[in-house]
Every structure is written in structure tokens, then in C-alpha cells.
Design a protein that fits this description.
The protein is of the alpha/beta class and about 350 residues long. It contains eleven helices and ten strands. The chain has a five-stranded mixed β-sheet, with helices on both faces. Strands 8-7-6-9-10 form a five-stranded mixed β-sheet, sandwiched between helices. Helix 4 (about 125-135) crosses helix 11, helix 5 crosses helix 6 and helix 8 (about 245-275) packs parallel to helix 9. Bound molecules: 5'-O-[(R)-(carboxyoxy)(hydroxy)phosphoryl]adenosine (KG4) and zinc ion.
Length: about 350
Amino acid sequence: MTPAPAAASRLIILGIETSCDETAAAVIARGADGRGEILSNIVHSQIADHADYGGVVPEIAARAHLEALEPVVRAALREAGATLDDIHGVAATAGPGLIGGLLVGLTFGKAVAAARDLPFVAVNHLEGHALTVGLTEGLAPLYLLLLVSGGHTQLIAVHDVGRYEQLATTLDDAAGEVFDKTAKLLGLEFPGGPAVERWAARGDPARFAFPRPMMGRAEPDFSFSGLKTALRHAAAPLAPLRDQDIADLCASFQAAVAEALQDRVAGAMDRFATGLEPGALKRFVVAGGVAANGAIKTALAQAAAARGFSLHAPPAHLCTDNAAMIAWAGAERLSRGASSALDAPARPRWPLSQLSL
Ligand code: KG4
Ligand code: ZN
């Protein structure tokens, strides 16, 4: 394997993402000045493959990744106007995620790197989400991060690339997971987050007084399972649900999640701010699929504004899973001289706090 390229040169990186139900490939550039540029970003969604099951079926996902990955990688290179001769490194998601899909993308990425004698980076998917704002707006650590996706709800102090401190996590379901389960309960399409948000736009957020889990509690963590139960109890007596019932349930549920997140984030901001050096900028980043939700972003913006934090969020299509963020995390690591061995394992569980450079 060739050594990782020196930081001073422009890097063009191929990224591969297969940890869940998106088969994605992207080509990004990282300038010597640290600025990022997306040259291509192809996301092939498997939503149709899983729709009948109301959730991601791991075996179906792995097979679909296997079929889609090569054409998706070819499309990413084509759209970037690049060939493998132009690529300086390959980055693929190694975890956390579904083992079958991870193995498909990781093995493909290693094979390309080995065949072309390119440096390889086994990327942590969560690090991809955590660093996306570096690609989209040049924001570098230190910042407070809320990572809200289908599998994770965490507050993290991002100290540096490769240095993450977990401040809070969910005690039960992830925020995206409760959106998906709520959608399933109400008979909406999969994935649930965007569907619930669409229905909520026509509903009354005050019709149902759902609990705001953990609100006002001193512990920093999240919890959503009580909210899920409350929704089920509110929906049951209304069956069969009219369209207005569904819209009101969605709006009331979304308002409860937004307010619960706002409360948890507000507390974390206060604690994070006390640990900052005098004069340091107070910066808050939200990332992950749930960050695409408008009501949630508004609630978080209010918490940030009240505490003098700037709010940073990638555009919606870079909040949900994509390979540009994986390529970028790979570029950030390679530019610091860090690469992975070609026997780097797939890791279904891989907390951010275990990373180093
Ligand atoms: O980051 P992501 O694409 O995949 C994971 O790493 O989990 O996040 C997917 C999650 C799903 O649970 C989906 O329902 C949720 O993000 N999501 C949303 C919205 N768009 C996606 N949740 C609420 N509102 C949205 N607009
Ligand atoms: Zn994700």
C-alpha cells in the first residue's frame, strides 16, 4: 500500500457508503487549504426494495448493495469527469451499520485501493455525519454536535478530527426510529420521517398533549419510548383514523420530539459553553437524517439563538446518508497522514468515542 499523501496537495477521494439502505458513491476534492468540493454524489435508494416490509431487511439490503454498487461507483466517477487514474485515495464505511451491507462496500473499496495501489480509509459512518459541515461550509472543530439519525441520537463534543466526546445518548429508541415506528403505526409510507413531516404540515400540533420525555431532567440523555407508547394509546380509540386524525397525530408527535430535543440540546449548550476558553466561538452543529426536519431545525435554532450559539446544518440531501460525507471523512484523515490497513474489519457497532487519528 502506498503511504498516505502529504497534506500539502489537493486530494481527490472516492467514497463508498453501504451501511444501511442507500448504496452511495461520491467523488470529492479537498484542497491544500482544507476546502472541500463535491465533484459527484450518487445515492441509489433501496426504499422500493424494503417498502413492503415497513423497514430495512438486512439480507435484502446486502443483496441490493451487491447489485447496485458497481454501477453507482461508475456513475460517480463519470459524473465527476474522473477515472480511477485521477483518484488519490478510497474511503468506505466500515461501521456502524448492517454487517452484510458494510462487507459489500468495504470489500469493494479495499479491492479498488489494492488494484490501484491507493491509500484506503475505513470510515466510521458517524464521523462522516459529524464532519459534513467541514465539507459544506468549511467549519472545523471545536463544536457541539447533535447527531440524530435512524440509528443514533447523541450529543457529542467534536474536539478535533478523530477526537469525539460523547455527552449524551438515547436510553431507548433513536429519534429517527420513533419517526419510522410512528409512520408504521399510522400506516404511512417508509421511511417514516419525511412522511410524518409531510402529514404534520396539515395537522394541529396542540390536539394531542404528548409527553416531552426527559424534559427538565438534570441527566443529559434522551428517551423516546414513552412518546411512542403515548401515540399508540392516542391513536387506538380513534380507529379507523381519518386523514385529519393522522395529520393531527403527526403534528402533535413531531412537536413533542422537537421540544424534547430542544430541551436536551439547551442543557448541553449551557454545559458545553462553560467548558469553552474565554472568547471561543459557541458553535452548534446538527447532522443525521432527522436534521432534515424543518420543525426540529426551527426548535434547535431557537435554543441556539437564546444561548448565543451559531447553528450549522448540512443541506437536507447531505443530512441523510450519502457517500460525499464518507469521502470527506477519508480526505480529512488522509490529509493528516492517517490511513487504514487493508484488513480493517467491518464493525456493526463502533462508537465515535473509540476513534483516534
Ligand atoms: O442518517 P440517516 O439517513 O440514516 C442513518 O444513519 O440512520 O437517517 C435516516 C433517518 C430515518 O429514521 C428517517 O425516518 C429520518 O432519518 N428522517 C427524518 C426526516 N428525513 C429523514 N426524520 C424526520 N423528519 C425528516 N424530514
Ligand atoms: Zn446515517
